[in-house]
Amino acid sequence: MSAGNTIATDVLVLGAGPSGLTAAHQAALSGASVLLVDRTGELGGNGAFSSGYMAFAGTSLQREQGIDDTPERFLQDMVTEVERKRQSYDPEFGLEVGRRFAEESGPTFEYLRELGFGFGRFVPRPIQHTAARMVVMLRTAQFQEIYSEILPGLGVTFMPHARARELVSTNGAVTGALVERADQTITEIHASRAVIVTTGGYQASAELRARYQPKHDPLAPYQGLETIVGDGQLMLEAAGAELVNMHMVPELVKMASRLVEECIALNEEGLRFEDEAGPYSERLRLLRAQPGGIGYFLCDADTARRHAQLLAEIPGTHRRVNTIADVARTINAPLDVVARTVERWNATVESGATADPDFGRVIFPDPRIGIRTPPFTVVPMIVGTDISAGGVRVSADMEALDKDGNAIPNLYAAGDSSGMINSAAGLGGVHLASAVTLGRVAGRSAVS
Q1: What is the distance between the alpha carbons of residues 41 and 160, in angstroms, rounded to a whole number?
Q2: Number of other residues whose CB lies within 10 A of the CB of residue 438
Q3: pTM of the shown model
Q4: Which positions ≥6 away from 266 have C-beta within 8 Å?
Q5: Is the pLDDT of residue 313 over 90?
Q6: Residue 85 has what pLDDT?
Q7: Is the Cβ–Cβ distance between 130 and 79 less than 8 Å?
């Protein structure tokens, strides 16, 4: 496959996150030789830092539970979410890309199930989703576990610890990339059929965040790998592709959705002040409305044990304390108020109520056990960022487009390298599910 400092392949996939994995798999199923390049040493990319929420329409799991849903309904929910964003941004949403995602999402769920991915319950978000379609993966580690088993059997070659630096073009068509290896040598990879860019977002790049969002703190904490610095966006732009939505790096309170299911938020008075599992933007608004803009998440030992990785990813100093009295002292709140707040939450959870009478919250722990087991963990509510929405403009086939709307030959992009879908990510489950779904589309398109 290689000769000297040059490597040849049919399809080159830059980035081994969820989108790159499905792209590589689909291309390899056609019989094409595939080389998968990633800056890290393992498969899975930033997907390992996700809560594992994924939204699909028209799935067998929905039908099994009598849930009526359609791609058209899903698309309309995405459009509605983008319109909500207009209060803070001027987002662009790729309607045809969104339609492709909605239509392909159901088949992608069946594809993942067939590969052995496990899913748990539907997570309700009635404000955003008009049908129950957001499911939670049992473990995000499944990306690494499953694809590390199946890709080598299809002849996919993995090049770890290699950073794509530049796309190579010949006569207007992209024909490969220059890749920096771990020893700092440069290898030219020639791709005879296609290059698919799935290198992720740019929330770890203070430089890009300052350039596109000068009014926000470019050093605010983010969730994910330190390697998500916009390599794909910069390479795609240099190759002539148009970038869109680069100004969208939404602020939010740093807390994984999977973890917040089992937590409550307290202010310095010891009171809850929000639907903790509600829209991200509302959580941020309500935190800033508290005295001093100060709030804390509270969970118990069982939650901390089950979600240790997600808890470790939240910035700030976590305090582990033995009693509710210690919780009150930690947040400088009256003990009687904190005790009543926690007990009221526990009673609501364990009553089996479908909605929280105080804030309308409909997402509860599963199993429905309150905050009971010491030691308790107190986590300061920190404002940071999460998903960068900006990337290259693409067609519904995931072709990278130039400023005139023309497809750049042999060049495709998916996942967070694409800028046409994440403007609807606040819906919940769109970010990860669209990466997997549209990665499959890119892989098929590249070899068609």
Answers
A1: 5
A2: 32
A3: 0.91
A4: 272, 273, 295, 296, 297, 298, 331, 333, 338, 341
A5: no
A6: 86
A7: no
